[in-house]
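Posting for a labmate who doesn't have an account.
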Amino acid sequence: MEVHHHPQLEHKPKPWKEYILEGLMIFLAVTMGFFAESLREHIANNEKEKQIVASLVRDVKKDTAKLNDLIYTYMPAHNRWTDSAHKYVDSLALKGNERKIIMGIFNATDWNTYAPPEIALNVLKDAGSFNLIEKERVKAEILTLGTHINEYIKYSAFLTEVEHEVDTASTSFIPRQVQRNVVAKLYINNAKNSNGFVEYDDIPADIKFKTYNKAVFVNYLNRVDEVDNLLNDMLGQYKRVLDQETKLLKVLKEEYDLED
């Protein structure tokens, strides 16, 4: 049987120009889709970067205020209390002056603890967040701040251990219940004021020492002096962190046109 071909049903090949045009349109569609996705991602990243920078600025500003208070208010007051504790023990009779001596000793050992800015540390730890920051000057200053913070953390771990050893040594002459009462008052005062030392009236009126051997008190204050020297060495760490945070804020303001 013969197969008859109907001319009107035969498929005619497209001109080569149409193939080129279709290929070009497909290429343009894919390319435009790629660029649109890249643009969306870029806009999203810019928004995330702005959020990170805004959080970083708030956190660092808060930390500079804390460091200024620590360096210029707390440390001078703490140094005065260390001197006063020595003066009370050296010049006063232990019996009858228990409240004043306890006040001096507790305030001389009321060691303020500094916690570095949390958001800055998180940005440093999270490569994704850090890489969202496009300004190279800002990245460089954040890395430098991280170096100073790490130096502080290492030194602080050693200092905290020494402070703990001195704190526990006070149980040799201060009754446990007295310690609990005074420490509770310290917490209350510190909640009201970051430099809330105890006052004379915060000390129980009927306090008695476990021992009235002055040598025990003198030896204890010698150990307090060791911590005091370490704390004053720590001032250098505080000031380096503060200086770098101040510089970082300046660079952030310049690079992102931030207002004060």
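Reply:
Got it, the structure tokens are right above this. The chain is about 75% helix and 0% strand.
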